[in-house]
Amino acid sequence: MKHRTIIEPFKIKSVEPITLSTEEQRAEFLTKAHFNPFLLQSNQVIIDLLTDSGTSAMSADQWAGIMKGDESYAGSNSWLSMENAVKHLTGMEYVLPTHQGRAAERIIYSHLGGKGKTFISNTHFDTTRANIEYSGADALDIPIQESYNTSLIHPFKGNMDTNKLKELIQVKGAENIGAVILTVTNNSGGGQPVSMANTKEVSQICKEHDILLLLDCCRVAENAYFIKHREEGFENYTYEEIAQEMFSLVNGAAMSSKKDALVNMGGFLSLRDKEIAKECTNMLIITEGFSTYGGLSGRDMEALAIGLKEVFDPNYLHYRIRSTTYLGEKLNEMGVPVMMPIGGHAVYVDAQKLYPHIPAREYPGQALACELYLKGGIRTVEIGSVMFGKYDDDRNLITAPMELVRLAIPRRVYTQSHIEYVIETFEEILKDASSISGYEITEEPKFLRHFTAKFKPL
């Protein structure tokens, strides 16, 4: 018998209270937060879909692992557990532990980057781009053209445009390309997966031109799910075997383990090249910690090692993808314009289509993020011209290709009733969509402005 209800493949052993609030209270909270959901306090939020990073609920086995965490400064047993788990998954000899993904990015891109260098990706995420640009290098995105059509059904919208990659190599010169980066799944592109065929083609192009290929692998298990179920030839592979094959095609990988390793803190950089690893290890020791802990406690490394195994469990991955798809499909049926097909870790709403009367320069995505909080206490994040917009020499805004709002689902945290509540909130969003106004930025930093920028409604 095929059941209609998606049940969580786990039992709840510990609970955390949610503070409920009224719309009037939330209006006051949002005003004090300068209309930026990042600046809200967690106890002012009912359903927190801001990010799936570090927000997972850990398993009983992971908590048990925490109790046996070895806090030795050098060569702890917990480091050996983590190192073995990462080597088993990536097949790479050199593993550098970091406290989270952006630390791994800072280390590798400051080493490979610098003025005159270019990095090419299917789509750089915010911290990746910031670390690259902070080094003085350029970060270019070349996703396939289909990725910009939110309503188009395509199995691997996260793919890189390999024709554009070849063109860029010719224009920039292979010696000036710091690295090519495949982000799996493609977070900024709507959480869309990358196919194995595309990875192989990108890998071959990089090998021909002696260019490093790196994997931003923080959601590699979710990407493996889509390959198994959408790409011919992988039906009989396990999810872990698919991920291992993908790693075999690249020279290195950076992971924020706060996603698919199911932990609240942790990351790593894995490499094949001994000389690059040596240089990066020096920087790791200077800025993060010794090479066998890299800013992580022993208990964090123990939990991370366990999480890297648990995430490939077929029952977990089926629940993870199906529950996210359920939310996205329900919103799509209601008439909410969402990125199709639904990604693995999040549902992305096309705010430009929802609010066609709000121009991109007035940040329709920020408007939707604020409305979701006001109407339902739901915290989300704008992925559009607030996050990725830039200014020209005359301070005119260069808008992002898409104006999205991401509803990122924390792993093993929310139940079916929480998701139904989100769906009901969107019913209210649709009722007055035509009357919503945009926002302007009143204060912003130079890098990663979406984290701390202040807004006011227009």
Any overview of this molecule?
- By secondary structure, the protein is an alpha/beta fold.
- It folds into two domains: 23-52 and 313-457, Aspartate Aminotransferase, domain 1 (Alpha-Beta Complex); 60-310, Aspartate Aminotransferase, domain 2 (3-Layer(aba) Sandwich), CATH 3.40.640.10.
- It has helices at 23-32, 60-67, 77-90, 101-112, 126-134, 162-172, 196-208, 220-230, 239-247, 274-287, 298-310, 314-334, 351-354, 364-376, 385-388, 416-431, 449-452, and strands at 47-48, 94-98, 118-121, 138-141, 177-183, 213-216, 252-256, 267-271, 346-350, 378-379, 381-383, 390-391, 397-398, 404-408, 439-443, 454-457.
- The strands form five sheets. A seven-stranded mixed β-sheet has the order 2-8-7-6-5-3-4, with helices on both faces.
- The longest helix is centred in the last third of the chain and has 21 residues, at 314-334.
- The radius of gyration is 21 Å and the shape is globular.
- It starts with 22 loop residues before the first helix and ends with a strand.
Descriptive key words:
alpha/beta, Aspartate Aminotransferase, domain 1, Aspartate Aminotransferase, domain 2, 2 domains, 7-stranded mixed sheet, 3-stranded antiparallel sheet, 17 helices, 41% helix
Cα separation of the termini: 53 Å
Strand content: 5-15%
Oligomer: single chain
CATH architecture descriptor of the largest domain: 3-Layer(aba) Sandwich
* Total E-strand runs: 16
Under CATH at level 1, the class of the largest domain stands as Alpha Beta
Classify the fold: give the CATH topology of the largest domain.
Answer: Aspartate Aminotransferase, domain 2
Total domain units? 2
Radius of gyration: 21 Å
The CATH superfamily of the largest domain bears the name Type I PLP-dependent aspartate aminotransferase-like (Major domain)
